[in-house]
Design brief:
Order of helices and strands: EEEHEHEHEHEHEHEHHHHEHH
CATH class: Alpha Beta
Strand order of the largest sheet: 9-8-7-6-5-4-3-10
Bound molecules: NADP nicotinamide-adenine-dinucleotide phosphate
Strand content: 5-15%
CATH architecture: Alpha-Beta Barrel
Oligomer: single chain
Radius of gyration: 19 Å
Largest sheet: 8 strands, parallel
Shape: globular
């Protein structure tokens, strides 16, 4: 396994982060693994040297955190555990969502409970909250660091001007700042290259892209997207503009290069992300041990500059997607 320093934290993480949105309970989404299979996957990831795991309070309504916590029992210190808050957890309780001090403090306690841990390594805000002043959010998060409940703070999809404001606010108030950006970035969605990625680079912020395989669209020919349970039922996948702006041709070029190199399409899509200096670790989502192993093997693929250019060439700007 290759490791990298996450942004400016000094903390080492594997170049692959395992996304835990696919673990928890199939009652939440049909394609989600139940406890036993989820634990098996986390353990295989640890065997392969993956030490970085991303979950959220909302995944499987908390079950994903519980499964991850259970899988890491007795091996907690080896892992870097990231989770998130923001989305409303209880439809009857408006304070179970958002980024007010009340919501953050309660949701953090709930996450720690489910994970069965005293400390979360990376606590992230899942989205921006227009209803709470960023000063309040940053103070509540900084207090959680002072209390020892959280080691580092991170953010996820938002506009670059909002992220810049949060960094500026922390610096102005002498508070811990966000050290990572978990954003939507893959060969079929590159709008982050305009503003967010240069900002992260300038500020020493670690970048950990979500849906690096475009929720599976980069892992198989586009006409076969519906071939899997997730392909048929993942409504979010269909809402992203993956096949606007030249996406179909990008998908075909990934197929062509994969065939030429004798590797899987998913491995080419990941190798493209590994070729980007701004990216610390893509957050790979999988329910299959073979696919997890393939992701790790993709670290050995070195794309040439001309391969990268050729894969990128058909892309045209698409509507911003993933901020809501
Ligand atoms: N911050 C946010 O707003 C946000 C949003 C979305 C996701 N996330 C995070 O990002 C993680 C990954 O997201 P994602 O699941 O959408 O990501 P993804 O990695 O882009 O896509 C996962 C899909 O790719 C398929 N796949 C993986 N490897 C494959 C291979 N070698 N061959 C064929 N298919 C393959 C998986 O199928 P199999 O299950 O069959 O392997 C699965 O259907 C999540 O777990 C979560 O932690 C965060």
């Amino acid at each position: 396994m290759e490791y990298t320093t996450l942004g400016d934290t000094g903390m080492e993480v594997s170049r692959i982060c395992l996304g835990c949105m696919s673990f928890g309970t199939s009652d939440w989404r049909e394609w989600v693994l139940d406890e036993e299979a989820g634990i098996e996957l986390v353990n295989r990831a640890l065997d392969l040297g993956i030490n970085f795991f991303d979950t959220a309070n909302m995944y499987s309504d908390g079950e994903s955190e519980r499964v991850l916590g259970k899988a890491l029992e007795g091996q907690r210190d080896e892992a870097v555990v990231a989770t998130k808050c923001y989305f409303q957890m209880d439809e009857d309780d408006p304070n179970s969502g958002g980024l007010s001090r009340k919501a953050i403090e309660q949701e953090l306690e709930n996450s720690l409970d489910r994970l069965g841990m005293d400390t979360i390594d990376l606590y992230q805000i899942h989205r921006w909250d227009d209803d709470t002043p960023i000063e309040q959010t940053m103070r509540a998060l900084d207090d959680a660091v002072r209390r020892g409940q959280v080691r580092y703070l991170g953010a996820s999809s938002m506009w670059a001007h909002q992220f810049a404001e949060s960094l500026h606010t922390s610096d102005r108030l002498g508070l811990d700042r966000f050290v990572t950006m978990q954003n939507h970035y893959n060969l079929l969605y590159r709008e982050e290259e305009r503003e967010m990625l240069p900002l992260c680079e300038r500020e020493g912020v670690g970048v950990i892209p979500w849906s690096p395989l475009a929720r599976g669209y980069l892992a198989r020919p586009h006409e076969e997207f519906d071939a899997t349970t997730r392909g048929q039922s993942d409504s979010h996948a269909k809402n992203h503009p993956y096949f606007e702006g030249g996406g179909r041709e990008v998908n075909e070029r990934v197929q062509e290069l994969a065939a030429q190199e004798g590797v899987e399409m998913a491995q080419i899509a990941l190798a493209w992300l590994f070729s980007k200096d701004t990216v610390d670790a893509p957050i790979v989502g999988t329910t299959s041990i073979e696919h997890l192993e393939a992701a790790v093997e993709a670290l050995d693929i070195d794309l040439s500059d001309s391969d990268v250019e050729w894969l990128e060439e058909p892309y045209e700007p698409v509507p911003v997607s993933g901020h809501d």
